[in-house]
Design brief:
Blueprint (H helix, E strand, L loop, with lengths): L31 H11 L11 E4 L6 H15 L3 E6 L6 H11 L10 H12 L4 E6 L8 H9 L3 E7 L4 H4 L2 H7 L2 E4 L5 H15 L7 H14 L2 H18 L6 H9 L14 H11 L4 E2 H8 L4 H13 L4 E6 L5 E6 L10
Helix pairs in contact: 1-2, 3-4, 5-7, 8-9, 8-10, 9-10, 9-11, 10-11
């Protein structure tokens, strides 16, 4: 008997892609006011004027990115304004940002050119029509000079900055902040009814009719509301479907929901072996130097600049391998204590 001989088709999922992390739903529930606010900041561009710049902040998993990208998609479909969305976690230097801008305007002459040369080369093309430049996770940039460059060299534009950290703008260089002069838009966490509504809608697209019991949905919705992260709820929906398929069930009940929640404690965005060599080395060093400050760890590591080292620590923290606690050390100012113990799990977020 073969390993797959007893496998039969389970009619659980209708479209599992709807549950993927990067999926962009066509309708953004409960964010109409925020989308109208974003759109109103961009409307002056349609009258040959500068739009208003915008600072968007709020906790992870509450719709900041998806709402903004929905507005940018409608802008692209209905006007001749060029929207550019760039994730600064992936593109974290001025040069990478400008290369992304080059891609958006189809500028091909980028080989072996410095950032300044690229800017000089694209300025005339970039200023042929109005544009919106959205920098998501803007706090992950190595430096913020590129923001000033865009403010100075692009004529008719709106710049949108998105971050989880509401305090980020306060710490921004005054030279950039005064030039930016943004509107601020805070995204509040969804309440329970909204969380339930979003997950119920996603179930309608992702699963076949009658598969997901209301009891299971309510359990997942309560957990997602407790965590303040709808994306966790979507992850749990998919996990429930996988569990039902694995056990040969044709309906998702409370047992699957509870089992999916229990598995959260074992969830991690990456595994140790998936890390790049330098991150793996740093993680190993932290494990044998528990509760030391970031500056002490940098002295032990002894490679590159502290700024680059701190960025690598931030990456490890983002992927839940370490925790970083900011403490006040009196006359010596603040320092950052790094630990690999007591890591947060997804259920603690």
């Amino acid at each position: 008997m073969g390993l797959f001989d007893d496998t039969k088709k389970r009619d659980i999922f209708r479209d599992p892609i709807v549950l993927d992390y990067d999926y962009q739903p066509k309708l953004i529930l409960y964010r109409d006011n925020q989308q109208h606010f974003i759109a109103n900041c961009l409307k002056p561009l349609m009258n040959e004027r500068n739009g208003r710049n915008l600072f968007i902040y709020g906790k992870p998993g509450i719709g900041k990115t998806v709402a903004c990208r929905h507005v940018l998609k409608e802008l692209e479909d209905d006007t001749d304004i060029l929207p550019m969305y760039i994730n600064c976690w992936k593109k974290n230097t001025s040069h990478k940002i400008i290369l992304e801008v080059c891609d958006y305007i189809d500028y091909k002459f980028t080989a072996n050119k410095s950032t300044e040369e690229l800017i000089a080369g694209i300025s005339s093309l970039l200023n042929k029509k109005p544009c919106v430049i959205c920098l998501d996770e803007v706090d992950k940039l190595d430096n913020y000079d590129v923001i000033y460059t865009l403010l100075e060299d692009v004529f008719r534009k709106s710049i949108i900055l998105i971050t989880n950290n509401g305090e980020w703008l306060i710490k921004l260089d005054s030279r950039i902040k005064s030039r930016l002069n943004p509107e601020s838009l805070e995204f509040k966490p969804y309440n329970y009814e909204e969380t339930l509504g979003i997950l119920k809608e996603r179930i309608g697209y992702a699963f076949n009719s009658g598969i997901f019991s209301m009891k299971a949905l309510e359990i997942i919705a309560r957990k997602a509301f407790e965590l303040g992260d709808v994306r966790t709820g979507v992850y749990l929906l998919k996990e429930c479907g996988d569990l039902a398929e694995l056990s040969g069930k044709d309906r998702i009940e409370a047992d699957e929901a509870n089992e999916a929640i229990n598995k959260l404690n074992n969830f991690s965005a990456k595994k140790d072996e998936d890390l790049k060599d330098d991150l793996s080395e740093i993680l190993g060093m932290i494990k044998i130097n528990e509760s030391k400050s970031s500056s002490e760890l940098f002295d032990i590591y002894g490679k590159g600049s502290y700024k680059t080292f701190k960025r690598k620590l931030d990456e490890l923290e983002k992927n839940k391998f370490i925790s970083i606690k900011e403490v006040n050390s009196g006359a010596n100012g603040r320092k950052y204590i790094v630990s690999s113990g007591g890591l947060k799990t997804l259920s603690e977020f």
